[in-house]
């Protein structure tokens, strides 16, 4: 039979503590380099540290991606501003911003016409005509003028459909400027987006048309739209001298 003292030792004696990091451990533990033992000890004492490091790296990567995409957005926005240059017609008394890539061309009936290289259907044109009225509100409200413009477009044989998208008004240099946006589906070039502005100064009617393709397979993108809207808002009369 087993002795009572031996059986008692199985239940109440503390088992020997073996540690890989203790000087008194077995010879097998001494095979670990001190630096490796220190690393294992750190992970053993704090098992959540590895998870915290991984989470920190994940947050860092997300922050880098956010800065990366925001940087592209800001660069794209800055590019739109940098691509515009001022054009001034002192003889006819108007000024506006023009995309630097557009080239000036001559066309009968237009006081100024600019076209996108290799795509003349994307263009910016200004027409100046003498009128008897001294301000545009004497002719009608912005909505009234927009209806006149769209009806004129609908009367063209090439127009299949035309609709007003928006109507607005802003203050110019001593006069009110009416602004319009409309879409035209034409047999000449398909669907187009048109941004127009009009004002009267010194008994002259100034009309700006900014035309750009807006086909379903190649719609007008947001950065180009922002660029064209800047052109629209820049159209104004020159100070009287």
Structure, described:
With 241 residues, the chain is of the alpha+beta class. It contains five helices and ten strands, in the order αααβββββαββββαβ. A hairpin with a 4-residue loop joins strand 6 and strand 7 (176-186). Helix 3 (49-82) crosses helix 5 (222-234). The termini are far apart.
DSSP summary, beta strand count: 10
Number of helical regions? 5
Helical coverage, percent range: 25-40%
Question: Which sheet architecture does the biggest sheet show?
Answer: 7 strands, antiparallel
Organism: Arabidopsis suecica
GO molecular function: calcium ion binding
Protein name: PsbP C-terminal
Pfam family, one: PsbP
Summarize the structure.
This protein has 241 residues and is α+β, with helices and mostly antiparallel strands. Helix content is 34%, strand content 33%.
Q: Characteristics of this structure?
A:
single chain; 241 residues; alpha+beta; three-stranded antiparallel β-sheet; 5 helices; disordered N terminus; calcium ion binding
Topology summary:
Blueprint: H1 4-12, H2 34-45, H3 49-82, E1 84-89, E2 94-99, E3 103-105, E4 112-116, E5 119-130, H4 142-154, E6 159-171, E7 176-186, E8 190-201, E9 204-213, H5 222-234, E10 236-237
Antiparallel strand pairs: 1-2, 2-10, 3-4, 4-5, 5-9, 6-7, 7-8, 8-9
